[in-house]
Automatic annotation (TrEMBL):
Keywords linked to the UniProt accession: Amino-acid biosynthesis, Aminotransferase, Branched-chain amino acid biosynthesis, Pyridoxal phosphate, Transferase
E.C. number: 2.6.1.42
Organism: Altererythrobacter rubellus
One Pfam family from the record: Aminotran_4
Family under the similarity heading: Belongs to the class-IV pyridoxal-phosphate-dependent aminotransferase family.
Catalytic activity: L-valine + 2-oxoglutarate = 3-methyl-2-oxobutanoate + L-glutamate; L-isoleucine + 2-oxoglutarate = (S)-3-methyl-2-oxopentanoate + L-glutamate; L-leucine + 2-oxoglutarate = 4-methyl-2-oxopentanoate + L-glutamate
Essential cofactor(s): pyridoxal 5'-phosphate
Organism superkingdom: Bacteria
Protein name: Branched-chain-amino-acid aminotransferase
GO BP term (any one): branched-chain amino acid biosynthetic process
Function: Acts on leucine, isoleucine and valine.
Amino acid sequence: MLFDYITHPSPTPEAERLAAIADPGFGKCFSDHMVVIDYDEAKGGWFSAALGPRKPIPLDPAASVLHYAQEIFEGMKAYKLDGGTMALFRPEENARRFNASARRMAMPELPEKLFLESIRKLVEQDKSWFPPVEGGSFYLRPFMFASEAFLGVRPAKQYKFVVIISPSGSYFKRGPAPVKIWVSQDYVRAAPGGTGAAKTGGNYAASLVPQAEAIEQGCDQVVFLDAVERKWIEELGGMNLFYVFDDGSVVTPPLTGTILPGITRDSLIQLIREEGLELREEPYSIDQWRADAESGKLLETMACGTAAVVTPVGTVASHDGEFTIGSGGPGQLTMKLREKLVAIQRGAMEDTHGWVMKLD
Ligand SMILES: *Cc1c(COP(=O)(O)O)cnc(C)c1O
């Protein structure tokens, strides 16, 4: 598909851009351009692609995304390697997962090549927005929504695929601080047969009340239990979990349809096995978590996702009280894996897995 290039009539002045990316924070600074690709069933599918100025998207008030939430997204990062080359981390996995989410939400799939091409073009266009700060990256947000004006409940016939860039600083200002997490006993994130494995907005809308409860309880994040038995630990609002034991084994919950299949999770599974450690994908219960933390059998718990990479879990709180993991500080394996993954992503360590896609 040919991309139209629409010249930006008034790009951000250089001084303003440099000020914005000097301390970009996370998710609040945006570059000048975006990619938009349109889909119309009547026109035979995806029919027009454009790279142009980032600006508001006109939307009919009856657009079905506003009523029935047909929406999916991805979260991925572009890095600058030593020497200045821009690179993506396992972007084919994001393209694949995007289409898995699309299928679950009765949305059209986007050819993986087109997904990757959109990202390449946008990163190239806006690379002067790359934050010149320690741990800086482009947080890329590809998303798709139903734009057809129609109030009946059925899959829409028109969609927009959009990519924007948020130049971002390090998720943690001073290295990864252990997080305190709140066990949600009143709310669940995903039920068997539901949409938990899809990156779709509704899952996050439903997580906001339990997340607010976590904050009220003095915690950073919420952890969800399974919807049926309210016993098995699933994941945080946007991060997968790993448990490290004193016998050298590591456990992460299996992907049974209620957990988001994280690309960081998949990468860590491979790195853990390469460390010679035993990695088991098996259910782990909240009661066992507390018992193992108290007996000392559990040494570490780590949370992982694109935004924060690998983060130690220090304390777990619920209506039944609190428990601490290890000494409450960052564990050894957590920090080792974090450093290794960051080094691979940023080109400081050899990419033996073919995970890094260089862009120029
Ligand atoms: C995106 C996401 C993750 C992490 O996925 P990564 O591919 O590692 O970024 C985990 N859980 C949820 C609910 C998510 O939305």
